[in-house]
Amino acid sequence: MLDVDWQQERVWASASACEDPTLRAFLLGLRRGATHEGRVRSVHNFGVFVNLDGEPGYQCTGFIRGPELSWVWIDHRAAAVIAGQRVVGLILDVDILRGQVQLSLKALEPDPFRPFENQEGRITTGRVTKLISFGAFVRIADGVEGLLHNTEFGDEPVEHPGQIVNEGDEIAVRIVEVDLVRHRITLSARDLPQDEERAS
User: Fold this and answer.
1) β-bridge partners, 63
2) Which of residues 108, 123, 158 is at a domain's end?
3) How do residues 68-106 score in pLDDT, each as one tens digit?
4) CB-based contact 102:93 (threshold 8 Å)
5) pTM reported for the whole predicted model
6) What's the CATH number where 135 sits?
7) CA dihedral 29, 34, 39, 41 (to 10 degrees)
8) I need a labelling partner for 178 at 20 to 30 A (CA). Which of 19, 71, 79, 184 fits?
9) What Cα–Cα distance (Å) separates residue 90 from each residue in 18, 69, 191?
């Protein structure tokens, strides 16, 4: 990293980074899929800069994009990490030309969607987190939200989910489909048995 435009949220780099023999040697020693430690240098809306252990002292090569901080949705990056904090990340990519190492913290955490594998048909409860024009997102576990489409509220037509639920409401839903690859869960509130014990 050579410069940062905080206003435009852009990182400026140069191909000359690969001409620095010390930096080049450090980057060539890193491997995708390996873990590496470092210390958070600064936290911004678009991501986190990390001073990696072993990098030349005048460089800051580690970078964590916002979505790679945690499986759990966070409004502010500082809720996940703070400047000065020691972190361990999985190396996603090493860009020798730009002198940048892409890291992921969430890749080293258990995938919260995994426990829902083969859970189609299960009835559970969740909290409505967001309303959009064609449905509502419902959090059924930490880091796991499913989509309840307008057509899945019941037999009566629903033009907007706000006709049925509000953000913050706790509702019962059935898990219809679990896509572990895309991390998507489809939910339904149709024909739920009133007397069936619901999983929490």
Assistant:
1) 49, 102
2) 108
3) 998 877 767 777 899 999 999 999 999 988 889 999 999
4) yes
5) 0.71
6) 2.40.50.140
7) 80
8) 79
9) 22, 11, 43
